[in-house]
From TrEMBL:
This is ABC transporter-related protein. Residues 346-580 form the ABC transporter domain. The chain crosses the membrane at residues 62-83, 148-165, 249-271. Signal peptide: none annotated. The keyword S-adenosyl-L-methionine does not apply. The keyword Nucleus does not apply. GO terms for molecular function: ABC-type oligopeptide transporter activity; ATP binding; ATP hydrolysis activity. It is a multi-pass membrane protein.
Length: 585
């Protein structure tokens, strides 16, 4: 489907506003084209006086005739200005509305896509679509759409006037038109792939910038500033070169069109002048045609800029619409799950899962997590522990087998209800740019101040928060960069405590803290895990030794299970890990 048709289909709710804007653009151009006709009438009055067109309507007095022309001029100019104001308002507001909705729809669609989609794409590339491409569309709707409509109106009105007033020379004036239109469409076809390449290159450039700004500490610590500047230079130069190829072609449009316009203007000037001298055409009509031919042909030189905007906008439209058309792989589920009804019994049954184009990381795994108990999952790096968390949150869909919550298949449950009843404290803590209080209350947006403070105390975070410059109102910086790793982790635990979910997942929740802080967090975790289903993933075995059951994973499979004491007696993988961490070997 053509990108313009895709855009029109998307903007169907604005159909009334679009037609109003088109109508005002046409009316503005009609009144804009009226002054040349008035000039012709005025010339007719000067030459013929009592025999002029206006005199034939009953006004013989020359002053009265000029008074009528003046009054019509005032009315026409006022109406032209009114409709110019109207179309400017309508087109610009339409651009803002479509831009606003398109960005929100694209962002919402992105949020619904599975994690695998983001793993295959760069953040900068997606930012380019949400920002650059949608802004490019706005620029076209602001100006370009009106220009196209007004040029089309000009061609129809003036072309018709020529054939009515002077059919003998009309064909000469209009002869360049087919070539101008053919040239415009030919340029459009040639420009389309070049601007698609421009949009692709700007996506790569934005990806580089976002990636480098996110990793600025690594760049500085490895003194890689010059290296990254050279890489950015390559991406920026590729963008510049792709733009240069498009500019090379688009810049040739206006000069070529100008030469075609010269043919029509010269023909009218010569043959129309000779017709007026020979008395075959009135001087007033000749004056009108000379003015009109300029009003017809010179605006066509702007078609180059207009088509340039159009092609950029269509390339951007394709990228945005392709994003919106990306199918959502994860079924949202339709069975409601009120959090207060959840007991928290989780079961994995013969689950197999592989990331895209990779070998399975979970293989035919089965395990049961009783309601209200604390279970731990341990194993070496890459054994599939964190993958189980992602599958339980349905961030990915399993390949075979099924996962149930309280006996109900996760795929049947409403996805948002499922995630609302699970609290996740990840080893990779993400804090948003905002205050400490806002980050603790994230996901529990209606929480009161005292509830936030209580949650912080449970997470052993209150004391350090009170020592921050503004306490709970301290800005944590982007990704929480103003806080230490341990502070960020305790805020994440406070966030989960405030959410008060029936299921709590601790994915290396104490990995970034010192021994003293770990002990404090362990005390808080002992309180918040009572009568709550808790899944703890850990490398530090000391943090999970009191779990009701410990599962040991290796290479995506469950190899051992039992309590801490039982696993030590088995003298297997867990016992070996314990001896290494406790210094017994």
């Amino acid at each position: 489907m053509h990108p313009l048709q895709r855009l029109l289909d998307y903007g169907h709710e604005y159909r009334k506003q679009i037609w109003l804007a088109i109508g005002c653009s046409i009316l503005n151009k009609l009144f804009d084209l009226a002054p040349p006709a008035l000039i012709g009438v005025a010339v007719d009055v000067v030459v013929k006086q009592q025999d002029s067109i206006i005199a034939q309507l009953g006004v013989k007095d020359v002053f009265g005739q000029f008074l009528i022309i003046s009054l019509l001029t005032i009315i026409i100019w006022i109406l032209e200005s009114v409709f110019e104001y109207a179309y400017a308002q309508l087109w610009r507001n339409l651009a803002q509305n479509i831009q606003h909705n398109l960005r929100l729809d694209a962002y919402n669609h992105l949020q619904d896509l599975e994690l695998a989609y983001f793993e295959e794409r760069s953040t900068g590339g997606l930012m380019s679509i949400l920002s650059d491409d949608i802004n490019q569309l706005e620029r076209f709707l602001d100006v370009g759409a009106n220009d196209i409509i007004q040029v089309a109106t000009t061609v129809v009105i003036i072309g018709g006037a020529f054939f009515v007033l002077a059919p003998s020379v009309a064909w000469m004036a209009m002869s360049p038109m087919p070539f101008i239109l053919w040239g415009s469409f030919a340029f459009q076809r040639l420009l389309a792939p070049r601007y698609a390449n421009v949009r692709e290159k700007v996506g790569f450039l934005n990806a580089r910038l976002v990636n480098n700004l996110s990793g600025i500490m690594t760049i500085k610590s490895f003194t890689a500033e010059d290296y990254e500047t050279s890489r950015l230079k390559q991406d920026s130069d590729a963008y510049r070169q792709s733009n240069a190829k498009a500019i090379q072609l688009s810049a040739a449009f206006v000069p070529l069109i100008r030469m075609l316009i010269l043919v029509g203007f010269t023909a009218l000037l010569l043959y129309g002048g000779m017709a007026a001298v020979a008395g075959k055409m009135s001087v007033g009509t000749y004056s009108v045609l000379v003015f009109l031919i300029q009003r017809l042909l010179w605006p066509l030189t702007r078609l180059g800029d207009t088509f340039d905007q159009y092609q950029r906008a269509m390339a951007s439209t394709n990228r945005v619409m392709d994003l919106l058309d990306t199918p959502i792989a994860i079924h949202p589920g339709d069975r409601a799950l009120p959090a207060n009804t959840v007991r928290g019994e989780v079961e994995f049954k013969n689950v197999t899962f592989a990331y895209q184009d990779r070998f399975p990381v979970v293989k035919n795994l089965s395990l049961q997590i009783p309601a209200g108990q604390t279970i731990a999952i341990v194993g070496s790096t890459g054994s599939g522990k964190s993958t189980l968390v992602k599958l339980l949150l349905r961030l990915y869909e399993i390949k075979t087998g099924n996962i149930t919550l309280d006996g109900i298949d996760l795929q049947d449950l409403n996805l948002r209800d499922l995630r609302r009843c699970i609290g996740l404290v990840s080893q990779d803590v993400f804090l948003f740019h905002g205050t400490v209080a806002e980050n603790i209350a994230y996901g529990s947006f209606e929480a009161k101040e005292e509830e936030i403070i209580t949650a912080a105390k449970v997470a052993e975070a209150h004391d350090f928060i009170m020592h921050l410059p503004q306490g709970y109102e301290t800005i944590v910086g982007e990704r929480g960069q103003k806080l230490s790793g341990g502070q960020r982790q305790r805020i994440a635990i406070a966030r989960a405590v405030l959410k008060n979910p029936p299921i709590l997942i601790l994915d290396e929740a104490t990995s970034a803290v010192d021994n003293e802080t770990e002990a404090a967090i362990q005390r808080s975790l002992e309180r918040i895990t009572v009568n709550r289903t808790t899944i703890a993933i850990a490398h530090r075995l000391s943090t999970i030794r009191n779990a009701n059951c410990i599962y040991v994973m290796e290479h995506g499979k469950l190899v051992e299970s039992g309590t801490h004491e039982q696993l030590l007696e088995q003298n297997g993988v867990y016992a070996s890990l314990w001896r290494v961490q406790s210094g017994l070997r």
